[in-house]
Amino acid sequence: MDDFIAARSQMALSLGFHIIFSCIGMVMPFFMAVSHYKWLKTNDEVYKNLTKAWSKGVAIFFATGAVSGTMLSFELGLLWPKFMEHAGPIFGMPFSLEGTAFFIEAIALGFFLYGWNKLNKWFHWFTGMVVGVSGLASGILVVAANAWMNSPAGFDFVNGKYINIDPIQAMFNNAWFSQALHMCLAAFTATGFAVAGVHALMILRNQNKEFHLKAFKIAAIFACIGALLQPLSGDISAKDVAKRQPAKLAAMEALYKTEKPAPLLIGGIVNEKDKTVKGAIKIPGALSFLAHGDFRAEVKGLDKIPENEHPPVAITHYAFQIMVGIGTLLMLISIVYFFNLIRKRTLLEKRWLLKLFVFAIPLGYIALEAGWVVTEVGRQPWIIYGVMRTKDAVTPMPGIAYSFYIFSAIYFSLSIIVTFLLYRQIKMVPVLYNKTESNNN
Amino acid sequence: MEYVVITFLCLGILLYFLLGGADFGAGIIELFTSTKNRSRTRKTLYQAIGPVWEANHMWLIIAIVILFVGFPHIYTTMSVYLHIPLLIMLIGIIARGTAFVFRHYDAVKDDMQWLYNRIFRYSSFVTALFLGIIAGSLISGHIDTDAKDFMSAYIWGWLNWFSIAVGFFTVSLCGFLAAIYLIGETTDDHDKRRFIKKAELMNIAAVIFGGIVFIAAERDKIPLADWVFKNTVGLTAIILASLSLVLLWYLLIKGKTKILRVLAGFQVTMILLAISYAHFPNFIRLKNGGAISLFETVGPEKTIYSLGLALLLGSILILPFLGYLFYKFKKKEE
Prior knowledge:
The model of chain A is unreliable at 435-441 (pLDDT under 50). Chain A has a two-stranded antiparallel ribbon with strand order 1-2. A two-stranded antiparallel ribbon of chain A has the order 3-6. A two-stranded antiparallel sheet of chain A has the order 4-5. Chain A has helices at residues 3-42, 45-79, 81-114, 121-150, 167-171, 176-204, 209-244, 246-252, 286-292, 313-342, 351-359, 363-377, 400-427, 429-432; strands spanning 156-158, 161-163, 264-266, 269-271, 276-278, 281-283, 382-384, 388-389. By secondary structure, chain A is mostly helical. In chain A, strand 4 and strand 5 form a beta hairpin. Chain A starts with a helix and ends in a 9-residue tail after the last helix. Chain A is globular. Chain B is mostly helical. Chain B has helices at residues 2-31, 35-49, 53-70, 72-81, 83-105, 112-140, 150-155, 161-183, 189-219, 224-229, 232-254, 257-277, 301-330; strands at 282-285, 291-293. In chain B, strands 1-2 form a two-stranded antiparallel ribbon. In chain B, helix 1 packs across helix 8 (161-183). At the A-B interface, helix 2, helix 3 and helix 13 of A face helix 3, helix 4, helix 5, helix 7 and helix 13 of B. Chain B: This is Cytochrome d ubiquinol oxidase subunit II. Chain B: It is a multi-pass membrane protein. Chain B: It is found in: Cell membrane. Chain B: Keywords: Cell membrane, Membrane, Transmembrane, Transmembrane helix.
């Protein structure tokens, strides 16, 4: 394996892994806090047990997310030293703030997990909230750093030198808001659907129905609100990308030729050699509208961009299709769910709806990963858009393939162990959280 | 602001050694505990580090972020030439971090525990060893930025007698710190005696390995003795460390736990100070006789200013909260 490809694969793998764990670690605390609040208000033991059960999930995911995050902070340098040498001082601001937020999160988690019966109950609840809020803040900050790579700001690049560095301006680059919003909603949607789906499965299996139904309802609300808002944020992102990174937008839609008006392609097989797309459904003018808010506007195609600045089109296009497809599906599920809530139908009778949620367990995360592929692969060949190419940033050390293999093995086994642990947690719910037994930590 | 940032960097590294190091030490202690006592040790250990577990490891992140934002040249030089030991250390961090949490949160306690325990113990050892190797390599002067071949660029920079000796020295220090912390965590007399014994053994090991570090330095032509003994700060630090060693043994026999912790922390701090003071602000010594200094590679002014501000702001938020965490979960011993 080529060192450059190995380095990119390792980075992609590490990020792909970290994203799932950190999203769960950042969203689950909010579910936990809602359940905790309900326990404090209603004194219903089920909510207390639910909070405890979820908090164990959070602990597992937080620890895994924390170590994979530590790993990433080193990997940036291990794999892309030339990038970090220049970029570190420019886009480091969100990272240093993220360090703070993450630290607070870790402390608050310590309080929360070990604070049962030791702290004032509202302070205890508050520490749980702090876990969520600081987790969310870290997420936003890290995405802001990534956004800088897509939309470099806060420095002047003159004769190969990076001068007039302004880290604050770099942090508030043009892409930070749209990217962070999209990411946060995605995290809530994906985690919400995954959690709701798992509990739906248990309801369908007639296990601890009361416990799982309460859990399902909390998670489903977050999931569905997220899924309904996501298209709006997607629209903001699309317009933003059209303005800043026309190459990425063109690759997302496999738009090889500049068109006016430009159609939106759904599906299709991309042939990168012939620069054609076969078998796609075309919606006339829709891409023009998506990108510029006008059905007749011109959309820049890849023909307007130098060949050596083209991102891999097929991957970007497929990933984009997967993301949008799943997003639409989840939005429809949400509409059905809300419709049911308004009509006051009892969920337990609607087994098909629960089955739909079970089906959706992995979907949110697939969409989330696909979205990251769109933004990262779509940025290629640049590591700092328009300034530094990815291949110029890679480490001079040979043999990266081996470290890629090692990390693949590690992440693979970690995923298996974590899945296995969750399976066991869920299996043990009837044993651990019987109503009679209240304290079992 | 430069000084603020550098202070935080030193503080981050120091606290990682003291707190994170003690966590590694906990695994090391477990490794060297007889099978029949292991589950008791494990329980005490969990009570001791459970609540502060995650927080202890944040110091590494703080230090590394300061390096890559404020001193990118140092960060990238380390990443390139110490790629392999860093990688091994990271694998160790991942393995022990996850194993520690998994073994506690696995809802079913069965044979899997055997696996988690093994991973936790061995990876604690490896992580501490490589942390020491990395620290040793930075000052060993073996890092060769002009190297033309693979071995001298990526291997000999860290695979030398001195670095490895520092690695084992670090392992014994971590074990020592952990044993000292653990003494105060248990109320059981039998356990207490066991931990005191461990602390004594680890301390002896640290002294022996400390000696080996000097021998290895001599062999690799590193003027370690000059750094430590030829300036007042280094000399004072080493004298204080030795004096506290005597005091420490006395208190150990008496079983005074609280002051022991402070003293052990003080001792390790003094050792770090003695080794590093002589070449401050140089962070990495190179084979060609040059060095990479903190002051010369410091990032642009605006970056340092905002980094320093972020750190100050962060510590206003973090320190009271962290202090309360330690207070709340540590006060129970009385």
